[in-house]
Amino acid sequence: MTPSGGSWPAAIDGEAAARIARLMFYGLLAIVLMTLDYRGHYVESLRGLAWRALEPVFVAVEAPFDLGQRLGEEMRDRHELMDRLAVLERERREREAELVLLEELREDNRELRALLAASQRIAPSFQSAELMSIDLNPWSHRVLINRGSRDGLSPGQPVMDIHGVMGQVDEVALNTAQIILISDPDHALPVRVQRTGLRTVAYGSGRINQLRLTDLPMNVDLQPGDMLVTSGLGGAFPAGLPVAEVESLSRPVGEAFARATVRPVARLDRARHVLVVDSPGASAEPEETGTEGSGPDSEQPADNAATESTP
């Protein structure tokens, strides 16, 4: 049933026309605004203004959290620093005690030298050099350095890195020098077992990470981990330079001597910079007697035949 006079369809048509007109207006307005924003970037400007207006609010909200985080980090850093200071203070006291003991030992050593009329050890000096090339022959462990005769080098001088003995100068040119490594099969180095004072000779094995001790008595007191240092015999190497660490000891049945394999402490295959000992440290200081006795007849048999290099 419809109202009299047919007023509903007319009212509906008028309302729909108004809605369509508003929709077209809003659509046109949106197109105009997008065109203006594309050309003038007004929306970005308004967004920037809004962000600058709201930024203090965000800062105020984040401030307590940032403050708490900074305080936590500062407290943690403070505790770490206090712990580190405690460790350093303890180490300082230990070093001071060690220095006191060393000073006492130095005084005792000075008195003993005076009693024995022994000369002081000559402190060696060094000059640095850099590796230039490596001999590719697997049976010849030799390297070339950028120092030569015009730098004062001469055959026989010891060469070492920061860890220990590497070898010695073999051949010298004007600006370069060839170094024979202690692992070369033609090299032999008089050494001393630091723990017992036993003297022997370390021979190159042809392997970059291994030396051989072949002239050991069958009842030798030698253990894995023992440190070998230069004995000073032969006059080329100063006494006391670290050479190698004992890895294993074998006593073959039916043979006259025990054998040991040792690992060089120097980085023979990785060192790039080396030190050449200028003053070989010819020392008149007598070696520790230890288990060897004090006379020449009590030396190990291998010492008399040992040479610093047997090229």
TrEMBL record:
It comes from Wenzhouxiangella sediminis. The keyword Methyltransferase does not apply. GO terms for cellular component: plasma membrane. InterPro entries: Cell/Rod_1, Cell/Rod_MreC_2, MreC, MreC_beta-barrel_core. This is Cell shape-determining protein MreC. The gene is mreC. It comes from the Bacteria. Residues 71-122 form a coiled coil. Residues 133-277 form the Rod shape-determining protein MreC beta-barrel core domain. Gene3D superfamilies: Rod shape-determining protein MreC, domain 1, Rod shape-determining protein MreC, domain 2. Keywords: Cell shape, Coiled coil. Involved in formation and maintenance of cell shape. Residues 276-311 are annotated as: Disordered. Belongs to the MreC family. The keyword Coiled coil applies. One of its GO terms (biological process) is regulation of cell shape. Pfam families: MreC.
